[in-house]
Amino acid sequence: MKIDPANPVPPKVTRRVGPDDIPDHVPPELVRSAGIIYGPEFLADPYKFFPAMHEKFPPIFYDVGPFGNAWVMTKHEDALFALRHAEYFSTEDATPFPRDPEDYFNFIPIEIDPPDHRKYRNIVDPLVSPKGVLELEDSIRTLANELIDDVIDKGGCEFDEAFGRPLPVLVFLDLMGLPRDMCDDFVEWAIALLHSNDREIMGQTMVKISDYLKGAIAEKEANPDKGLISRIVQAEFDGRPISEKEKFGFVIFLFIAGLDTVFATLNNIWLWLARNPERVQEIIDNPDNINSQVEELLRVFSVTFSGRTVAKDIEMRGVQMKKGDKVTSILPACNYDPDVFPNPTEVDFTRPKKIILAFTVGVHSCMGAHLARLEIKIALQEWLKRIPEFKLKPGTEIVYRPGGVIGPHHLPLVW
Fold first, then answer.
1. To the nearest 10°, the Cα dihedral for 351, 41, 39, 300?
2. pLDDT at residue number 1
3. How far, in Å, CA of 115 to CA of 308, rounded?
4. Whole-angstrom Cα distance, residue 204 to residue 97?
5. pLDDT of amino acid 310
6. 3-state SS of the chain?
7. Which of 203, 247, 343, 408 has the greatest CB tally within 10 Å of its CB?
């Protein structure tokens, strides 16, 4: 059924959960309970778990668990196909966040497949295109140095609180046109939504976010600025103004997507830097290679997955997937595919350029990818210029929280 985001209706989907809810067409030998995002082996070290998936599991298997059952893909080639072929793998109902069926909306543009997808991307592209984000470079560098100023003389900091989160989140809030002084509240909501793994808590949090953003949308309609929300609420296409449902679905999707991913990525990278001082020096000694360094670190420390719904029956690697089945591409595992990236666990800043899946690919590739790359680049340049030697605080135990965005919970550093 074609989606009409201006007049959205809840999709008719079958949600399957646990070992007693497996479709008849799934071969028993392909059923696994991998514990992705929640199991003790995963949480002990996700970035050992991801590459090991290529040895431990079939390339495509049916994963059952408390958060839903789905086909899982770990091969780079398979994920590329799924991400590029919306005719087989649709983004309808692709997000895990609860919505009120009586006040339903689509997450835009992630849940809108071609050809309608592009008209929504066109609204925000001027601000998030490579050219658009370069206009933010000076302000991002200024912010990075202000954050470093606050901690450089203290001999240490909670990296996640002092730099890893505020850098990308404050940049994002400025881009959206949202107030910086609400940062702590926004972060609290993001953590509850992305890491509670409790449908009741997620539902309550969605209500808080929705109430706030509806007020923010009304404010931008009355007093527009140059931010993303204002661009969205004033948009017109197909000879009509954007509808209220479309405005809200677009704004709330950007809000959720923008608060956690770069933060988690920075935490992962700085943990690796703290454990590998000789590689820090390699980065410092090769400033002209910064773009390749960023790309390789994004490959090794990808933080998200990509969910789809099978739109029509398809066979891949001899596996029959039926319309309505859920599919998850484990993007970090795909970026460790040894058939594409030889010695995949090695961080190699001279690795030949190939497609990485940190930001997915295809029509649904991450809108914030160019901004994320710039933020990581600037963070590395400015931090290593001023704090080139640092390590984990002695006695630190690295803890990963269950959730769909992967990164250490806390990262205390000393220097």
1. -10
2. 53
3. 17
4. 11
5. 94
6. CCCCCCCCCCCCCCCCCCCCCCCCCCCHHHEECCCCCCCHHHHHCHHHHHHHHHHHCCCEEEECCCCCCEEEECCHHHHHHHHHCCCCEECCCCCCCCCCHHHCCCCCCCCCCCCCHHHHHHHHHHHHCHHHHHCCHHHHHHHHHHHHHCCHHHCEEEHHHHHHCHHHHHHHHHHHCCCHHHHHHHHHHHHHHHHCCCHHHHHHHHHHHHHHHHHHHHHHHHCCCCCHHHHHHCCEECCEECCHHHHHHHHHHHHHHCCCHHHHHHHHHHHHHHHCHHHHHHHHHCHHHHHHHHHHHHHHCCCCCEEEEECCCEEECCEEECCCCEEEECHHHHCCCCCCCCCCCCCCCCCCCCCCCCCCCHHHCCCCHHHHHHHHHHHHHHHHHHCCCCEECCCCCCCECCCCCCCECCCEEEC
7. 247
pLDDT for residue 283: 97
d(CA 258, CA 248): 15
What integer pLDDT is reported at residue 101 of this predicted model?
82
| Spans of the chain below 70 pLDDT | 1-2
Q: Which two tokens stand for residue 373?
A: 């790359």
Residue 349 token pair: 């800043």
